[in-house]
Amino acid sequence: NHLLWKTSKENKADKIAHGTHSRGELNHKTVLTEDDVRLIRDLRGRVTGRALACRFGVSPSNIWSIQKRISWAWL
């Protein structure tokens, strides 16, 4: 009785609503914390992406994605 036909978008929304979505710190492969992401965004324009990447152990493209709100967009 609890199974319903839903679109992929609806399934993703249900995961978020029920807290079963493994995004951000809930993902076991993540390197960054939410506080790290907020700091990366705060330092935009003051510290280079390459320097931030070295500091946090991620790629410069990851820093770019965070600052453009492509990654970690919900924060």
Task: Explain the overall architecture.
The chain is mainly α and 75 residues long. It is built from four helices and no strands. It has helices at residues 8-18, 34-42, 49-56, 60-67. Helix 3 (49-56) packs across helix 4.
The computed structural class is mainly alpha
- The chain-level mean pLDDT equals 89
Q: What does the overall shape look like? A: elongated
Radius of gyration over C-alpha positions, nearest whole angstrom: 16 Å
Strand content: under 5%
**Element pattern in H and E:** HHHH
Number of strands: 0
Low-confidence stretches: none
Tally of helical runs? 4
TL;DR of this structure?
The chain is an all-alpha fold and 75 residues long.
List keywords for this structure.
75 residues, mainly alpha, 48% helix
Topology:
Elements: H1 8-18, H2 34-42, H3 49-56, H4 60-67
